[in-house]
Amino acid sequence: MNLNQLARTVRRATLAGAILTGTMLAQPGATPEFVNTLMPQPAQLTVGNGLLDISHGVAISFDKFHDDRLDNAVTWARERLQEQTGAMMQADAASLVISVDGAGEAVQGLDEDESYSLDVTPQGIHLHAATDVGAMRGLETLLQLVQSGDNSFWLPAVSIQDSPRFRWRGLMIDCSRHFEPVGVIERTLDGMAAVKMNVFHWHLTDDQGFRIESQIYPKLTGLGSDGQYYTQDQAREIVAYARGLGIRVVPEFDMPGHSTSWAVGYPDLASAAGPFTIERRFGVFDVVMDPTRESTYAFLDKFIGEMAAIFPDEYMHIGGDENNGAEWKQNARIQAFMTAHNLKDTAALQAYFNQKLLQILTKHGKKMIGWDEVLNPGLPKDVVVQSWRGFNSLAAGARQGYSGILSAGYYLDHMEPAAAHYRVDPLPANNNLTPEEAARILGGEACSWGEYVDPRTIDSRIWPRTAAIAERLWSPRTVTSEDDMYRRLAVESLRLEELGLTHISQEEASLRALAGTQQIDALRPLMAVLEPVNFDTRSHWSEAHGVTTLTPINQLVDALPPDPPSRHDFGDLMSTYLEDPVAHVEEEAALEDTFQSWVASPELMELMSSSPQLAAALPRAQQLAELGTLGREAVSYLSSGVPAPPGWKAQKLAFLDEAEQPVALTRFTVLKPLRDLVNEVK
Ligand code: ACM
């Protein structure tokens, strides 16, 4: 049994009684049971009696308002439903009546009404929403409700009243450190809409590349992008595409730091003397805009005006993070300016810069959002703070009157499991905020930073973990079961794949490329239990090895998805087994099969030697074999009640410590449960 089969067995075993399998549904006369795989979970769900058969299609009509956007959304939902069910429309098709009160906001904002209600009865479906956007959210729920049996597709009788817990549910993508083509952005927007996210935060500029065309300042991309940038037409296309999905687009132009790419074409913007070149390394650099010169603001005024015409959102993100102030401290002219203006430190000078920038944004009809560092005394209260430092920083802002969103805890590049993100709540139950302060916490954003991500790997870095974050931001605070989240996430992951996302398929494609053959079965048991090391480990390694933006993203670590199913499934299997090793014979057998599959085969060793990237991870194959042996021994001691020989336990724990060490930037997903296992041995 390989790990995929194991996962299925385990899921069936752990959910026995809760889930009816397809075969059970086929029993004549039995009422099939609704399996709730909704993600995010709705605010209120009541399951009624009976079902609606949709095997002969769903005929969709409007009984109130509709417009082009809603028509398109409905067409898309219809196509997906047909793809999902293969249903040919017949005369006895089920009916879906959509009642929408009116269009959404002309420019979607924080107050957009996204609520909807969805009623399914054996007679038909009724979707009601105040706006197009609410209807779109309801259509996504409807698609997730579809159940299948042996002979039919059907919807459970349900009544759903749903609205989001937070108004700002975003995903940030850094397109500066690595550029992501339009197609990648659009399929990501499809995934976001599927899990009801509503803000695409587009990190368009940073030290490593300037990615949006300016016609006023053509050298920004001309010299700062290596030719990899979005034209204004492409940016407008993405804004329109996102609007079609009920998603806002908030562009970020990071300043005054993280601004090397601006200075390549326009060195006078910078505080130090040029010339500058596009930054190829990663980290925090000294290049920073000169806040003392009026010419800087004249430039930004024209640039922001140009961008304001492309990005209709009320908010514009000005970055503001990680300015180390070095060039300001070293520059006598800037120091003199600070003295003359009574600015006591570089943070005060940045606050001065922000005030001037805010005037420019306001002039062009925009509100400002920035990272934690923008929070400074004197900052106007309508600036939104995005916290990458943590809840305390967010709460401190809320107490001072600032609205904010949380991103600390949602950094996808940290390679944490979905469960770790899921535990992070922008407004935890024990927050000590007054209701007025709490209302200032608008939501959160998952962040996909681009150091080690390219167009082939980005999907697996974003999905499916972002769906867990989306649920945290949409669903009631009380929806917290991690086991249930993983159960539904496994299904959502397949639905996201149907949308064209490559987060599952890319692993195999990359492994085939690395192995140079289509016959990669022997790699699977090992690859199933490996995942990328965390961001810090990769950063240290990358620095030591001279990795830059130009280094290909084609190592084994790039093929591996973070938080693969093995992490949760194996942990789940082990904890069930350890509840009673003597009695749990089914789990014992599943563990035995798994440990057996970890024995290094000659085919595995041969494949691991077929490319330098795989060969770098050869020690992992040997370690896995040893882990299999360790596991088998531990299970035999525990199941038989025979104690291990003296020294066995200490030796195995030491081996587990060794296996924790990174090899080829990979780590095992199964070490904690194995440690629990060894610790149980007498
Ligand atoms: C950040 O992580 N520097 C926003």
Structure description:
The chain is α/β, with parallel strands linked by helices and 682 residues long. The chain folds into three domains: 3-162, Chitobiase/beta-hexosaminidase domain 2-like (Chitobiase, domain 2), CATH 3.30.379; 168-499, Glycosidases (TIM Barrel), CATH 3.20.20.80; 505-680, no CATH class. 44% of the residues lie in helices and 15% in strands. The chain contains 29 helices and 18 strands. The protein has an eight-stranded parallel barrel, surrounded by four helices. Strands 1, 2, 3, 4, 5, 6 and 7 form a seven-stranded mixed β-sheet that branches. A two-stranded antiparallel ribbon has the order 17-18. The longest helix is centred in the last third of the chain and has 23 residues, at 618-640. It is globular and about 80 Å long. The structure holds acetamide. Acetamide (ACM) binds next to loops.
Secondary structure topology:
Elements: H1 3-14, H2 22-25, E1 44-53, E2 58-62, H3 68-85, E3 94-100, E4 116-121, E5 124-129, H4 132-145, E6 147-148, E7 153-162, E8 168-174, H5 182-194, E9 199-206, E10 209-210, H6 219-224, H7 232-243, E11 248-255, H8 260-265, H9 294-308, E12 315-319, H10 326-330, H11 332-340, H12 346-363, E13 367-371, E14 384-387, H13 391-400, E15 404-406, H14 418-422, H15 435-438, E16 441-448, H16 458-462, H17 465-474, H18 482-498, H19 505-515, H20 524-527, E17 530-532, H21 535-544, H22 556-559, H23 565-579, H24 585-597, H25 602-608, H26 612-615, H27 618-640, H28 648-660, E18 666-668, H29 671-680
Parallel strand pairs: 2-3, 3-5, 8-9, 8-16, 9-11, 11-12, 12-13, 13-14, 14-15, 15-16
Antiparallel strand pairs: 1-7, 4-5, 4-7, 6-7, 9-10, 17-18
Helix pairs in contact: 1-23, 3-4, 5-7, 9-12, 23-24, 23-29, 24-27, 27-29, 28-29
